[in-house]
Amino acid sequence: MSGRYVVRTYGCQMNEHDSERIAGLLSADGYEEASDENDADIVVLNTCCIRENADNKLYGNLGHLKTWKDEKEGRQIVVAGCLSQKDRDGVRGRAPYVDVVLGTHNVHRTAELISHAREHGPITEILEAAVVDEHVLFPSALPVRREVSYAAWVTIQIGCDNNCAFCIVPSVRGEEISRPFDDVVAEVERFAADGVSEITLLGQNVNSYGRDLQRAARRDGDDEARLRPLFADLLTAVGDVDGIRRVRFTSPHPKDMRPETFAAMAQSPAVCEHLHYPLQSGSNRVLALMHRGYTADRYLERLADARRRIPDLAVSTDIIVGFPGETEADFEQTLEVTAAAGYDFAYTFIFSPRPGTEAADLEADFVDPAVAGERFERLRAVVERSALQRHEARVGMVEEVLVEGPSKKDPSVLAGRTRQNKLVHFTPPTPLRTGSYATVEITHGAPHHLLGNFVDLIAEPTHRRRIPVEAL
Ligand code: SF4
Do the beta carbons of residue 312 and residue 271 sit within 8 Å? Predict the structure, then answer.
């Protein structure tokens, strides 16, 4: 095939990872990446239905793309991802000029569907469930085109067996399916051989990784099927791969957090001292309405356990403000738990109903937007206070920093991440390559970043400048 493409991504890391696979598949099929859509024959929108106003944004963008498509014969528009999985025929109902609509279970078919549409006209293909085939099921097992050569995401699990009232993921991504243990480790080994030094394990509920594998093994009469939590073992195994200096993971669920995971984090030198630990609300009443499966006390107990076991642990979280029925008293409990948790960082959101979720039907209990907005600001102030405190406490420490490249605001300054996933800006005496590791002494802490002075170069990157696209 020939032609040029661009992929635009909306949403979470899982979607960004899917986009890398879509780009990899198209490149493997002979297409070339275009610098922007003016230079492209195909635009792929990889959509997300979790974020606020996702529908409006998609259909607004599709309106603009209609003009782009009309400007040149043969241009094609592809809509993939969660929103198309949810809206199905609705996408072409609202934007009939879209050529291909595919969902979350058939990313591997992107190139074929584009060819099909070119020959036979527009097509919508949404699968109900994942096809059980390793290459098809896990985006990591498909060809990849990654923008960053020193770090990689590895999908360890797809879908989710929980039913959080605000979340559309279970209905668009399906039930939880874990990727075989050895396949994950083998992929990490391949990345390490290519010079990748930082791995992020991805899944909707990573710490329940492997439950389905163990169940299946026991059903098949394998009495040896391990009862130990596989996620802790996976962290250790990935951390042991030669060349891997950093292992991260996202996202765990507080209800499934096990001491074995904290022990593995503490014992494996490669696993970073950062835990993303989504609170969502500090009110037990709201947590129950959300079906989160833990109380605020239980959450804080486990967090204290994590901090006891893992020295110098940074903790980040997600919090929703104004969930339907949230009272002032509920919200004040969220403020209290937030202050008690002492986060380094928090993603805070004002509740917005996602069609198809239980919470979207609680319209009678929706919180007044002005009240939710005011609560949001109060929460932000509490989070920023603890973030600033924790960042200022790092002044004088010498931290390992992975160089990500020049800072966006000043190209003479480098930006990098500490093991705790904190953004650091510093100026080295001589240029450092992206992917290098350096030590930096922290000189200043702000709520969202640190400043520091270069101390030493620890390691140069070993990756090739661009990892070639693998064929299937
Ligand atoms: S754990 Fe809850 S919030 Fe996370 S993906 Fe599953 S249903 Fe959604």
Answer: no
Q: What is the CA(251)–ligand 1 centre distance, in A?
A: 9
Residues 414-442 pLDDT 10s: 999 999 999 999 999 998 999 999 999 99
- pLDDT higher than threshold 80 for residue 202: yes
Which of 12, 104, 204 to mutate for ligand 1's pocket (most ligand atoms within 8 Å of CB)? 204
Token pair of 103 as six digits? 């969902």
Cα(247) to ligand 1 centroid in Å equals 22
CATH homologous superfamily, domain 4-125 = Methylthiotransferase, N-terminal domain (3.40.50.12160)
| pLDDT value for 147 | 64
Top pLDDT among 407 and 295 is at 295
Ligand 1 atom closest to Cα of residue 168: 8
In angstroms, rounded to a whole number, what is the distance separating the alpha carbons of residues 42 and 140? 23
If you take atom 4 of ligand 1, which residue's CA is the nearest one? 204
* Neighbouring residues of 327: CB distance < 8 A, sequence distance ≥ 6: none
Question: Which residue, judged by its Cα, is nearest atom 1 of ligand 1?
Answer: 162
**Ligand 1, atom 2: closest residue by C-alpha:** 164
Sequence spans of domains, the chain? 4-125, 148-272, 275-393, 398-459
Distance of CA 461 to the CA centre of its chain: 24
Q: Which of 85, 164, 294 to mutate to test the pocket of ligand 1 (most atoms within 8 A of CB)?
A: 164
Domain 398-459 in CATH 2.40.50.140? The answer is yes
In ligand 1, which atom is closest to the CA atom of 161? 6
What per-residue string of b and e applies to 92-102 under the rule 16 or more CB within 10 Å gives b?
beebeebbbbb
Identify the architecture of domain 148-272 in CATH. 2-Layer Sandwich (3.30)
The pLDDT of residue 43: 93
- The pLDDT score that the predictor gives to residue 468 is 39
The pTM assigned to this predicted structure is 0.78
Please give the C-alpha separations between residue 24 and each of 84, 141, 360, in angstroms, as whole numbers: 21, 11, 36
- Mean pLDDT score, 80-98: 86
Pocket of ligand 1 (CB under 6 A): 160, 162-164, 167, 169-170, 204-205, 253
- Architecture of the domain defined by 275-393: 2-Layer Sandwich (3.30)
